[in-house]
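Dear colleague,

Thank you for sharing your sequence with our group. We've completed the structure prediction you requested, and as agreed, I am returning the results in plain text so they can be pasted directly into your records. Please verify that the sequence below matches your submission; if there's any discrepancy, let me know and we will rerun it promptly.
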Amino acid sequence: MAESRSFANLLPDDWAKMPFEPFRQGVEICHLWQGGPDVALLRYAAGASVPRHRHAGLETILVLSGSQSDETGCFPAGSIVFNPAGTAHSVWSDDGCTVLIQWEKPVVFLD
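Please find the predicted structure tokens below.
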């Protein structure tokens, strides 16, 4: 049985002190919860991107700092984005950003 987990004071900026590891070129990850649905912090360097992918389950993004963009727009800090199952996009950050991300199932990369 999984045990409860908490992160006191994650906001406004204690997330910046969390341990990150490489994920993709220019993007780092800090896993907060694994085992479906998964929850993590993603930190994008300025100019970093994630290639086009399709969502197999709901993905929820909360932008904590900077801005994250996809084909539907640019989302500054404080934005929340929902990408339901079946949707596809690529993601990038011109100025760098950190997001809290929750996903039900792994994505399928299309490129």
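Summary note from our side: The CA atoms of residues 29 and 42 lie 5 Å apart.

Kind regards,
the structure core
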